[in-house]
Amino acid sequence: MENKTAPAVKEKASIPVLPVVVGLILLLGGAAFWVLQHSSPPRAAKPVLTGDARAYVKFLKLSEVEMKAHESYFKQSVVEITGKIGNEGNRVLNLVEINCVFTDTAGQVVLRERVPIVSQKTKGLAPGEIKSFRLAFDNIPESWNQALPQLVIAQIVFAF
Questions:
Q1: Which of 75, 86, 98, 159 is least surrounded by CB atoms within 10 angstroms?
Q2: Which residue has the higher pLDDT, 39 or 74?
Q3: pLDDT, tens digit, for every residue of 21-65?
Q4: What is the C-alpha end-to-end distance of the chain, expressed in Å?
Q5: Taking Cα atoms as reference points, which of 159, 151, 158 lies closest to residue 61?
Q6: Looking at the whole model, is its pTM more than 0.85?
Q7: Is 117 strand, coil or helix?
Q8: C-alpha to C-alpha distance for 95 and 123, rounded to whole angstroms
Q9: Residues 6+ apart with CB under 8 A from 112
Q10: Where along the chain do its domains lie?
Q11: CA–CA separation, 117 vs 119, rounded Å?
């Protein structure tokens, strides 16, 4: 009796194409993200209070500060802070910026936004002058504690 056995057929090991393509796309996407993160120029730091400005803060008075919320035309909640700033010093100011610091119920900062309340657009702030300001925020996180944010003078630019 002859035992005829068919020659063994060699199977080629095949690599599934879809996982390879997905892996390559993920790898290239990650590499592109890394390159973009590390090749972009560093953000310029916002100016801080100079020594003169720090000494002058005591002459700036915020008053009649109120907060209101309303709904915009786009059905979005808008928080509006209004008030007045007075210059009780002897220098003309071209710019006053404040940090509005919103916190949650645990006191953790949920939003810090730096905004001008005096600028060239408002024609500066002369000694003895009081001007109104209005700030609108539509990007406050839901975790905000609904209290008036802390308002801190962030920058003062004096007129020459």
A1: 75
A2: 74
A3: 888 888 888 877 777 666 655 555 677 789 999 999 999 999 999
A4: 114
A5: 151
A6: no
A7: strand
A8: 9
A9: 99, 100, 101, 102
A10: 51-158
A11: 7
Q: Which pLDDT belongs to residue 7?
A: 58
H/E element holding 20?
helix 17-39
Give the residue-averaged pLDDT of 74-88.
91
Residue type, 76: Q
Cα–Cα distance, 123 to 98 (Å, whole number): 17
Q: In the prediction, which pLDDT does 126 show?
A: 97
Say if residue 75's pLDDT is above 80: no
Residue 9 CB coordination number (10 Å):
5
- CA 27/CA 22 separation, integer angstroms: 9
State which CATH number among 2.60.40, 3.40.1000, 2.40.128, 1.20.1630 fits the domain covering 51-158: 2.60.40
Q: List the structure tokens of 143.
A: 């975790």
Q: Which two structure tokens, joined as six digits, stand for 159?
A: 């007129």
Residues in the chain: 160
